[in-house]
Amino acid sequence: MSLNRKFCVAPMMRYTDMHERFFLRLITKKAVLYTEMIATGALIHGNCDYQLDFNKEEHPVAVQFGGSSPLELSKCAIMAEKKGYDEINLNIGCPSERVQKGNFGVCLMLEPELVAECVRQMRRSVDIPITVKCRTGVDDNDDYLFLKSFIDIVKDSGIKTFIIHARKGILKGLSPRQNRNIPPLNYEKVYSIKNDFPNLEIVINGGIKSINEAKNHLNYVDGVMLGRAAYDNPFMLSEIDSEIYSNAKTDISKKDLLSEYLDYVHLMTEKGYDPKIMLKHVFGLKKGEKDAKRFRVKVTEVMRSPSLVENKDELLSMV
Ligand SMILES: Cc1cc2nc3c(=O)[nH]c(=O)nc-3n(C[C@H](O)[C@H](O)[C@H](O)COP(=O)(O)O)c2cc1C
């Protein structure tokens, strides 16, 4: 499957699980979807293969790994390729303390040679594309030359695609959440990378809230990646196929979407998945509408009730 990363939905721990991705795929056929980060240690030592599970409907879908051992990453890459993923993304952006302790995530921006080696080993092991998601810098290493040199060294591994969260990461004193809000966005730096490396595919990420904003960025870079805005207002993605990809619009109404997803939740509940985790993904379905809150309250009620089937009609009557 060839990947067109003009519009991507960002990896988000506890949010972009397989159910969220199934839900989003009902809304857009084209956007590239990313899994939550999976630590290589969990797959190799933790007997956590289930973390790689996904629905066949999710394609195009990329798995994101966090790790810094070229050998472990290449083993995980082989597992992911066997599972059928379309891309492997390496997380060089996460600033959490747990991730720093494991010596991966954004602190690896300080070790571009190691990142290049990780990518090289994975490229040797699999045929699917490898991509890197990084930030614009880390701590005081935040001038343009630092970023340019990181990209320059890592690209020698043969990698073609970088996803750049347009703010630096701060290793000490900020929580991951603060690290997504406090360091200022600097889109110009990402545009400059595209200018300086025109043969690389550059995807911009961070603070993009609407399709119009996304389209504007596409004047300067190859792709956009949205995280929070896509989660909070998933139906916004119904515009993507026509507006970004010039494809036919995925013409699904909110009612049909919810109906189809609730059937999925019912089926997956019978297979042992937790309906609460699956249902939270519909919270944003009525974002911006005046009875959005009433809908969220009802969804919360359904999460607590033993029967989804009995509540389906009432939920559908609200959209
Ligand atoms: C709840 C949450 C979890 C996240 N988990 C990950 C993750 O697992 N891997 C990753 O690379 N980025 C993660 N991120 C960062 C997003 O991928 C993205 O870079 C960031 O939110 C900025 O984009 P946005 O402003 O469009 O949300 C997470 C963000 C949020 C809000």
Number of helices: 14
CATH class of the largest domain: Alpha Beta
Amount of helix: 40-55%
The count of β-strands is 8
Per CATH, the superfamily of the largest domain is Aldolase class I
Annotated CATH architecture of the largest domain: Alpha-Beta Barrel
Mean pLDDT: 96
CATH fold topology of the largest domain? TIM Barrel
Shape: globular
* Portion in beta strands: 5-15%
Distance N to C terminus: 35 Å
Q: Could you state the order of secondary-structure elements as H and E?
A: EHEHEHEHHEHEHEHEHHHHHH
Flag low-confidence runs. none
Order of strands in the sheet with the most strands? 1-2-3-4-5-6-7-8
| Count of structural domains | 2
The computed structural class is: alpha/beta
For the largest beta-sheet, the strand count, sense and barrel status come to: 8 strands, parallel, barrel
Output the radius of gyration.
20 Å
Structure, explained:
The protein has 319 residues and is of the alpha/beta class. 41% of the residues lie in helices and 13% in strands. The chain has helices at residues 18-27, 40-45, 70-83, 97-101, 112-125, 144-155, 187-196, 211-217, 228-232, 240-243, 254-270, 275-279, 292-304, 308-317; strands spanning 7-9, 32-39, 61-66, 87-92, 130-135, 161-165, 201-205, 223-226. An 8-stranded parallel barrel has the order 1-2-3-4-5-6-7-8, surrounded by 5 helices. α3 (70-83) links the parallel β3 (61-66) and β4. The longest helix has 17 residues, at 254-270. The protein is globular and about 55 Å long. The site of flavin mononucleotide has 22 residues, from β2 and α9.
